[in-house]
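User: Teach me something about this protein's shape.
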Amino acid sequence: MGDPPTPIRATVIDFDGTICLRDVSEEILAEFASPEWWEIDLEFRRGEIGSRECLTRQGALLSGSKGAMLEFALARFTIDPSFRPGVEWAHDLRIEVVVASDGVGFYIEPMLSAAGVDGVTVYTNDTAIEDGRPPSFSFPNAHPVCVGCGTCKMLVVLRSREQHGPVAFVGEGYSDRYGALYSDLVFAKKYLVDICKQDGIAFSPWETFDDVRAGLEAGGEPPGPVATETRRLDLARESPRLSALEGTTDRRERIDEKRRPRHSRRRAPQSQASASARVLPSQLSYSEA
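Assistant: First, the predicted structure itself:
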């Protein structure tokens, strides 16, 4: 079979906004929760709370059955059509494909199954929704010290590297920051572009998983991780809000999304830095020093 075209041995991929082009957790909240969920979301975006607290408080506002929410998700949303061929290509090269999500999460495996995607490991939060009772959450993939996130994408990346080798991370949002910081190679779009620039993370812009595949096929030595777990724990002692975006540009624009209509207010205009497709590792972007 010959040597694989890339040294990357595992890919860790966000789900909401990445594998699925819509944020299904937010769409479920918009449909089944009282409007206060958005005020909590703004607290998270301003860096006042972590994603674990955000999810727990927003989840308490949900009403309806888990079956109805899952039916809603499956009927309204599908995964990126380029994802399944990308997974099959990765499996042919014995590259592990891992999904890491810090959202409501229970819809991920059913959505992947509906799209014919298998052989993918999923790490997400556990959601219990029983009729007549408020939803409850548990966090089997949380960090043992840091309480900022529900699913610690840093740990998912570190475990994937330990088990398989160098890791590529693919994402787009606020909760992807620590997955990107600890990965050997990063593919970023939307909000993650600004985060990478802030944190000095080399990244390849992407639009579809065809771009990710092209970047991996180009080969070359990956840049390597920016951060270490020791640094993560130092940050954990400094602040509990580790998964929130701190000090990035365009914060006012994101907070002002509150004034937008219900189904459009959560999505700021896409950063032009993520507009180019099919960018190879030799064209990696770096933030200014």
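Now, about its shape. Confidence is low (pLDDT under 50) at residues 236-283, 285-289. Residues 104 and 132 are 19 Å apart (CA to CA). If you'd like, I can walk through any region in more detail.
User: That's plenty for now, thanks!
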